[in-house]
From TrEMBL, chain A:
Residue ranges that the Swiss-Prot or TrEMBL entry lists as coiled coil: none
Domain Phosphatase PP2A regulatory subunit A/Splicing factor 3B subunit 1-like HEAT repeat span(s) in chain numbering: 941-1012
One BP annotation, GO: spliceosomal complex assembly
GO annotations of cellular component type: spliceosomal complex
Organism: Pisolithus tinctorius Marx 270
Disordered, as annotated region: 100-122, 140-213
Signal peptide as annotated in the record: none
Name of the protein in its database record: Uncharacterized protein
Splicing factor 3B subunit domain boundaries: 187-294
Database matches in Pfam families: PPP2R1A-like_HEAT (PF22646), SF3b1 (PF08920)
Bias-annotated ranges (Basic and acidic residues): 100-119, 168-182
PANTHER family referenced in this protein's UniProt entry, alphabetically: SPLICING FACTOR 3B, SUBUNIT 1-RELATED
InterPro entries in the cross-refs: ARM-like, ARM-type_fold, PP2A/SF3B1-like_HEAT, SF3b_su1, SF3b_su1-like
From TrEMBL, chain B:
Name this protein carries in UniProt: Splicing factor subunit
Spans through the membrane: none
Record-stated family: Belongs to the SF3B5 family.
One GO location term (cellular component): precatalytic spliceosome
């Protein structure tokens, strides 16, 4: 070890100094929110990719209900025509911008080239640069002067403080996660109406804006040049220490007398802020004020107001949380107002806001009632005001999953109520909801689909098409993508045939390839979403897109191939005749294409081949194989995956012969894919294994295993694992009979090698070992000594994982070792495992016990070494272990011993185990409870039920409900295994105890007894009748409920066994309980009545129900009809003979005679 | 929990019942109920060939004819619905 003079190693460790220092600094910094990082994870926008966040760039059309206005004869404005014009304009804009960028890029490149060619730039250029520099310097100086003077100029405190537009309100927020980071990560914004404040807001602030709030979200502050200077620490106007004092504050500071507020001199105008994008912030009387802009929160935070975020809003009550961002949307309801001065519309708006806030931020009960209210009043509120409030909330960047879910739910409910009133808002809703369709979260996608399909049903196909048509050839790919998905949802909601003519037209669009591309993509999405439901329309769908395979645009061709692949996948295994049209272009296509296009074409072929007849499949496979083999060498990951998939699909078809696979595919396949590199990528790994297993189905075990078995000794562990997994799967499906002696030696050798060499104890290796050895059966006999010595060695390893794995392997091999007749080895393993029972790691201990159990199972209790009488006492204390795996393994072992070898263990030991087992009856895992209950049965059988039963009956007196319930179950098990006659008298006797718990326990035990013994209960019906009479007439509800359950099980058990008289008696006792209202009781009673239908026949039950079907009291009628209905549903046909003869009720033209029943020969 | 059950268990049962033809409710009229009974009786006879042949013999008609007539009869087995009293 260390030399003597070196300092002694300290045996306690603390964190390094710099780490502690860092934490201390962090703590000192103000406003450090340790959860900030996780909070941003919750935010959808922060988590998603740039592509997803492109949704913030979308512009919603101003909606009109075209149909309605046409009906009314009004001029349609801003409708479809305008939308299309707008779309064209945007496209043109994007095109021009691209052209400009292109030109600039070219010029830059040329310039660069010039620079490269000519080391010294020409004098003219130098001069230019110098002049530019001078100008910039001058400008900067001027700005500085201006800024400095601006600071020095005294500001009069009686003048309203002008908001300084130049201060970047985001500045103080820099360190936080919210705004800046998001804005930075989001792609550059295109100017859209989302971003800019509309003009009239600037001019007339006081007016109520005519436009909806929809249009005025978040004015964007284009950062002016002076920003940096103005943000210098000294001039931070918005900082709470530096802001100007307000009138109130000055009033408070200055004495009230002796000072006069001077009126401003005539002609004085307060300095006008240079830009007026943001409305001037009016200083609010009352301290707390939130501006209606997305930066309000930042400003509030800067002013030191952030901590005062409200948790209780007037008229809303307590909220679960309140985010600073919420303030801007709910500003109007945050402050107290005089409601009498508000107009009806304003009141409505406030009401909606309150409900939304409750739904979004409230606790579950609050949310529930608010949701119900908003749904009920949806039509009253109207579509406009509702969506004006909901949709901006959904576009908030800091939205979290839960909030989104709730808001989407609101839309869903509201849509349902509003029906065609939503028409003007369809596009706005789509803009917000479409992004959900490409969300990573499955549930978000489902929600989005549901909303769009409801929307389609409410607005109608024509309106949906005219709303979404402009987006189909939108310049932005994101918009086209989401629109295609939305269209597929519409198709599934309104039926494919309705959409087909439109799709045909779009896919043939001459104007733009984007439209064709989107049309094909719609078809693809329809196929993906609707699955085999496309079959009836398969031909027309394929017909729609077929010509896309020969489109002039590469992208359209690729997308068409993908769509055909999706259609074929959805249609499998039917519908090959619909693809006739595309076969030729596809097969020609794979010769012409390269790269991405080829991948798509191959994919389509891969999905079409399995649909074909065997002979065609074989022909086409041969055609495509040439290309596939060429592409085996591709370096493109995507292509690799597709090639593997296609190979798998081809190999799986009937027409492809083993011979062909062996000769033409396997050599190249193994050369290109069975290389170490493939094991490194998870997806490649899986795909290669799957494909190889599929090939093995045709080529046989020996062929495949023989090729890869040597790789089991490869030096790369992931690769060995990949080999092992493949061998496992192949052998598991096809067996090992194909493997000859030489291969067998190599295989076993390789498996033992790779098992021993593994560094991470893996399930794959374990499964592989188990599967191969079990498949080989007695053929492993020669290797067993070696295998067992490996296991023994590993059982004593110092790593718990290794020991556990060795034990698990023993469990798997026990049967084979027994088959090979190596009992010697088994008893050796058993002894070693027995010695290991002191294991401290619960996982390992569980495996060891399971292994011991497996050995005991194959060897039998008599031959077991260690003998059972030693093993069991060792297990008793282990039963107290709380670990589930240990519990399960030990209870299984004990149960097996109790079942097969109970006589080897003294009765005292069994009683001790009984007490321990009572605890296991309330385990969380069902398997453990079941094993424990079964063990009770075995133990009771071997000991005789008396002792066990008395333990259990005494246990009914304990306080804890859980263990009482478990005891009742155990009693029932004892009754089942030892015969009901052993238990029922004891239970009936116990029922006479005065204690309520015990009586309920007895009843409960009887329910289980009769449930388990089934038809045997016919013998015991009469003996329990008196007790049931007592229980069914008890005042206590639970008694009657449990007794009804007993009656149910009795009736079901002895139906058709001649106990009708007793059953009728019990029926009379149960029947009056049908008016109970407590849910559990009425449930039990209805069940009992239903069971009586079987025991007594439906006729008897019908005569009971006839009494009350037309009773004058509705309450009675309702109950009787419910019983009648379940009777009718259970036995409609057999009721026919029992219907009463109602001929005397006939009146006028209604004859109620059932004539056919009155005929006789 | 109990309130939850009250809202689910029984109401659900009733919803479930209401899905099937032939089930009833507290406001069912005599005419509707008996009509269901008649239809069930006719269906039952048609569904049990021995019964059908028995009726065919009694009527002196072919089985197909009897079955056809019964099917026709199912439309309004008890005549047209009684006029609703305006209340």
């Amino acid at each position: 070890m260390s030399p003597t003079n070196s300092p002694r190693l300290v045996d306690s460790f603390t964190a390094p100094k710099e780490v502690l220092q860092e934490f201390a600094e962090l703590a000192e910094e103000d406003n450090v929110d340790p959860f900030a990082e996780t909070a941003s994870k919750r935010q959808i926008a922060a988590r998603q990719s740039d592509y997803h966040n492109r949704r913030f760039n979308r512009v919603a059309q101003d909606g009109v209900d075209v149909f309605k206005q046409v009906d009314e004869g009004a001029e349609v404005e801003g409708g479809y025509k305008d939308a299309m014009r707008l779309a064209r304009l945007e496209q043109e804009e994007a095109r021009v911008r691209r052209a400009i960028e292109e030109k600039e890029r070219k010029e830059r490149e040329e310039g660069k080239m010039k620079m490269d060619l000519d080391k010294t730039p020409p004098a003219a250029e130098l001069q230019d640069v110098a002049m530019e520099l001078a100008a910039a310097k001058e400008l900067a100086e001027a700005r500085e002067r201006e800024a400095a003077s601006g600071v020095k100029r005294k500001r009069r405190w009686d003048v309203t403080e002008p908001t300084d537009e130049n201060v970047d309100p985001n500045k103080p927020d820099q360190g936080e996660w919210s705004k800046d980071a998001l804005e930075a990560s989001a792609p550059k914004k295109r100017r859209s109406r989302w971003d800019a404040t509309p003009a009239e807001n600037i001019t007339a602030v006081g007016e109520t804006p005519k436009r909806s709030r929809w249009d005025q979200v978040a004015p964007v502050h284009e950062a002016p040049m002076t920003q940096i200077i103005m943000n210098a620490p000294g001039i931070m106007h918005d900082d709470k220490h530096n802001r100007y004092l307000t009138d109130e504050e000055l009033d408070a500071i200055l004495p009230s007398s002796g000072y006069v507020i001077v009126t401003p001199p005539p002609g004085y105008a307060p300095m006008v802020a240079p830009r007026k994008l943001m409305p001037p912030s009016v200083t609010e009387v009352g301290g707390f004020h939130i501006q209606e802009s997305s930066d309000a929160a930042a400003i509030a935070a800067a002013a030191g107001l952030a901590p005062e975020l409200p948790t209780e809003i007037p008229g809303v009550g307590n909220l679960a949380f309140f985010k600073p961002e919420d303030a801007q949307y709910f500003a109007k309801i945050l402050k107290e107002e005089d409601e009498t001065q508000l107009s009806v519309d304003e009141m409505k708006e406030r009401k909606i806001m309150r409900l939304l806030l409750k739904i979004k931020n409230g606790t579950p009960p609050v949310r529930k009632t608010a949701l119900r209210q908003i749904t009920d009043k949806a039509r009253e509120f109207g579509a406009g005001p509702l969506f004006d409030k909901i949709l901006p909330l959904l576009m908030e960047r800091t939205l979290e999953d839960q909030e989104r879910h709730l808001l989407v739910k609101v839309i869903d409910r509201v849509l349902y109520k509003l029906d065609d009133l939503v028409r003007p808002y369809v596009h706005k809703i789509l803009v917000v909801i479409e992004p959900l369709l490409i969300d990573e979260d499955y549930y978000a996608r489902v929600e989005g689909r549901e909303i769009i399909s409801n929307l389609a049903k409410a607005a109608g196909l024509a309106h949906m098409i005219s709303t979404m048509r402009p987006d189909i050839d939108h310049a932005d790919e994101y918009v086209r993508n989401t629109t295609a998905r939305a269209f597929s949802v519409v198709a599934s909601a309104l039926g494919i045939p309705a959409l087909l003519p439109f799709l045909k037209a779009v896919c043939r669009s001459k104007k733009s390839w984007q439209a064709r591309h989107t049309g094909v993509r719609i078809v693809q999405q329809i196929a993906i979403m609707m699955g085999c439901a496309v079959l009836p329309h398969l031909r027309s769908l394929v017909g729609c897109i077929a010509h896309g395979l020969t489109d002039e645009q590469q992208k359209v061709r690729t997308m068409t191939a993908l769509a055909i692949a999706a259609l074929a996948e959805a249609a499998a295994p039917y519908g090959i005749e619909s693809f006739d049209e595309v076969l030729r272009p596809l097969w020609l296509g794979i010769r012409q294409h390269r790269g991405k296009g080829l991948a798509a074409f191959l994919k389509a072929i891969g999905f079409i081949i399995p649909l074909m007849d065997p002979e065609y499949a074989s022909y086409y496979t041969k055609e495509v194989t040439v290309i596939l083999i060429r592409e085996f060498q591709t370096s493109d990951e995507e292509m690799k995956k597709i090639v593997l998939k296609v190979v798998k699909q081809c190999a799986a078809t009937e027409g492809v012969t083993a011979q062909y696979i062996k000769q033409d595919i396997l050599p190249d396949f193994f050369k290109s894919f069975w290389v170490r590199r493939m094991a490194l990528d998870r997806r490649n790994y899986r795909q290669v294994v799957e494909t190889t297993v599929e090939l093995a189905q045709k080529a046989g075990v020996a062929e495949i295993v023989g090729r890869i078995v040597n790789e089991l000794k490869d030096e790369a562990e992931p690769y060995r694992k990949m080999v092992m997994e493949t061998i496992t799967k192949v052998v598991a499906t096809l067996g090992a009979s194909d493997i000859d002696e030489r291969l067998e030696v190599r295989l076993v050798d390789g498996i033992i090698y790779s098992f021993q060499e593994q560094t991470t104890e893996d399930q794959v290796m374990l499964d592989g070992f188990g599967t191969v050895v079990n498949a080989l059966g007695i053929r492993v006999k020669p290797y067993l000594t070696q295998i067992v010595s490996t296991i023994l060695w590993r059982l004593n390893n110092k790593s718990a994982k290794v020991r556990q794995q060795a034990a698990d392997l023993t469990t798997r091999l026990a049967i084979v070792i027994k088959q090979c007749g190596e009992d010697q080895l088994l008893s050796k393993l058993g002894l070693v495992l027995f010695e290991q029972l002191g294991e401290e790691y619960p996982d390992t201990l569980g495996s060891i016990i399971a292994a011991e159990g497996a050995i005991a199972n194959v060897v039998g209790m008599t031959q077991m070494n260690p003998p059972v009488k030693d093993l069991l006492p060792r297990m008793t204390p282990i039963l107290r272990n709380r670990h589930e795996k240990v519990q399960e393994a030990s209870i299984n072992l004990i149960g097996r011993i109790a079942d097969r070898g109970a006589e080897f263990v003294p009765a005292r030991e069994w009683m001790r185990i009984c007490f321990e087992l009572l605890d296991l009856l309330k385990a969380h895992k069902k398997a453990i409870r079941r094993a424990a209950v079964n063990s009770f049965g075995y133990i009771a059988k071997s000991l005789g039920p008396q002792d066990v039963l008395s333990v259990l009956l005494t246990n009914l007196r304990v306080q804890e409900r859980q263990s009482r319930v478990c005891s009742t179950v155990a009693i029932a098990i004892v009754a089942e295994t030892c015969g009901p006659f052993t238990c029922i008298p004891a239970i009936l006797n116990e029922y006479r105890t005065a204690e309520l718990n015990v009586r309920t326990g007895c009843l409960k035990a009887l329910t289980f007894v009769f449930e388990y013994v089934g038809p045997q209960s016919a013998y015991y019906v009469d003996s329990v009748v008196t007790m049931l009479e007592d229980a069914l007439t008890d005042r206590d509800l639970v008694h009657r409920q449990t007794a009804s359950v007993i009656v149910k099980h009795l009736a079901l058990g002895c139906a058709g066994l001649g106990c009708e008289d007793t059953m009728l008696h019990l029926m009379n006792l149960v029947w009056p309980n049908c008016f109970e209202t407590s849910p559990h009781v009425i449930g039990a009673v209805m069940d009992a009545v239903e069971a009586m239908r079987l025991a007594l026949g439906p006729g008897v039950l019908l005569s009971y129900t006839l009494q009350g079907l037309f009773h004058p009291a509705r309450k009675v009628r309702e109950v009787y009809w419910r019983i009648y209905n379940s009777l009718y549903l259970g036995a409609a046909d057999s009721l026919v003979p029992f219907y009463p003869d109602l001929s005397e009720l006939s009146e006028g033209q209604n004859v109620y005679d059932r004539h056919p029943l009155q005929m006789f020969v | 929990m109990s309130s939850e059950l009250r809202y689910t268990a029984n109401t659900q049962l009733e919803h479930l019942h209401a899905r099937y033809t032939g089930t009833g409710h507290a406001d069912l009229t005599k005419y509707e109920w008996i009509t269901h009974q008649h239809r069930d009786s006719l269906a039952s006879i048609m569904g049990h060939p021995p019964l059908l042949s028995y009726l065919a013999i009694a009527d002196g008609e072919a089985m197909g004819r009897v079955r056809f007539e019964m099917t026709e009869r199912m439309l309004q087995p008890c005549g047209p619905p009684p006029r609703k009293d305006d209340d």
